[in-house]
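I would like you to sit down with the pair of lines that follows and say whether tokens and residues agree.
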Amino acid sequence: MKALKPDKLSKDTCFDSFVETGTLHGKQKGHLPAMGWNSWNAFGSGNTEELTRAMADAICDLGLDKLGYRYVVLDDGCYKPERVDGKLANEEVKFPSGFKALADYLHGKGLLFGMYNDVGTNLCAGAAVGTCGHEEEDARSYTAWEVDFLKVDNCYYPFDNATFSNPENARYVYAPVIKSITVGSGKAIPAKEGKLTGKVGRRRKDGPVLGLGTFDGTGPKYSPLGNRSSELIFTVNSAKEQDTTLKVTYATGKREGVGEWLQMSVNGTMVQDGFLPETATEEKFVTSEPIKIQLRKGENEIRLMNHRRQENTLQSYAKLLKYLRKYAPDRDIIYSACEWGKTQPQNWGHRVCDSWRILNDITFRVGRDGDPGHGDWVSGYTNSVTSQYNKAVIMDRFAGLERGWNDPDMLMVGMGGLNHSQTKTHFAMWCMMNAPLMLGLDLRRVKKGDPLHRIIANEELISINQDPLGIQAKRLFCSACESRPDTTYVRKNDRVDILVKPMKDGIFAISFINLSDHPMEGRFEVSEALIRKAFGEKVRLTGLYRVRDVWNRKSEVLEGDCFGVSSLKPFENISWLVIPMA
């Protein structure tokens, strides 16, 4: 295959305009969170056509389709290991009838058909059929197969050190070590005189700066809020408006934190965006060729940076969308970015996708036919309910009908490892946070009316997730926070959270969550004043309410200006629909 390189960016895809500018390539808005079933947590790469048809049958037999579970998504393991004549092809043992026949079967049952690919050269399980460099022909294939949902992963990505990629690909997404800049014939300005922004970059004791780039957000260590990139900014004074030159003294590397790609702008105009010549080592500094720049009279801002971690990934997801819209302009395809939060997709995902994964996988112990797999409530990495929840719960500002949805990965309801209380609370969390509700269990294990069915078929919780206002819940109380529970990143799970979610007609939902493994006693409450401050006119606050418990299906009248509970069992969730009466 020919060598790949990032495409040149159009003006509207540069970093400075990520948040402010609109969608790309006709990305459709207004989708509520997707609901359905995905094969990965249930069967991993062992899914088959026979199993998929059985899951579709179960969705209908259990009445789940009537509740909104309509997307049936094939994850990794469905293609041949290599392309055939440059095209994707079905794995003939596992999917002997082909993908169009499977789509027809699903569509005939009133369901929708989903598939999987990757922005890299290979899929995560290794098949050399990633969409990178094949976006147009793959879009033609998905159109011919009448695909309604596309999940696109981020393994083997050639422009970043993503999972299974060459670690040296970090050269694309970090700037070189910067020692100094020189403007015109003036003296070199050392890096220590520049302003270092963000939390990624750092100054060496001897002066040079490294780490100009975007932090890898794949893991749960850091908050998703705030500036996740670092730049080195110099303020240069000029006695007059003039044409001059800019040189940078640097050393390159090929590892996380030190790369070869440098972006520089002068007063907002990009003057450099590409590789600098490689140096012998990270300690062998050289000075670049002069770059022509324009200075204005007075203060001038010179920015040294590398936002390619976000730009390249946005560009790759956008390229596939471009061809999907070209070949299926009238088809309403849900586009799900599974890039694990690596590039802070909450900043750019809304421009091309309907949802974006916020972390790496929620479980690494997926099931197989006859084995339910395993989920955890807590872990030190991403593979647990609370790891995903703790991050997603403070990301409400990034979600909405005009943008899309934070995706804390598939549901682990029905997998091993979680008890009944944890499973109920997990489902309620996802509903309150407007997460996509993608089931990941073998549905043949579910019977109508059994405990699992009562969770995933809870119509009132689903109505909260699918409310037409499309507002993600906000955390208004956290027993482990001294202040700002809506924005404070908390990983300590010995706590109670209270989430509030506005819904249509002034109704709102309240969810009380005990994340800990022991009972929590006390008064856990939110006031009308706090809710009004958070949501204004989006909720009706009247002092008199009908409160409906969505788990026990009982209602009572509540009068007063506070909503609270006095105790919660281990891992317990109490969720209410609150209907104003006055």
Notes: Residues 187 and 340 are 44 Å apart (CA to CA). The chain has a mean pLDDT of 95.
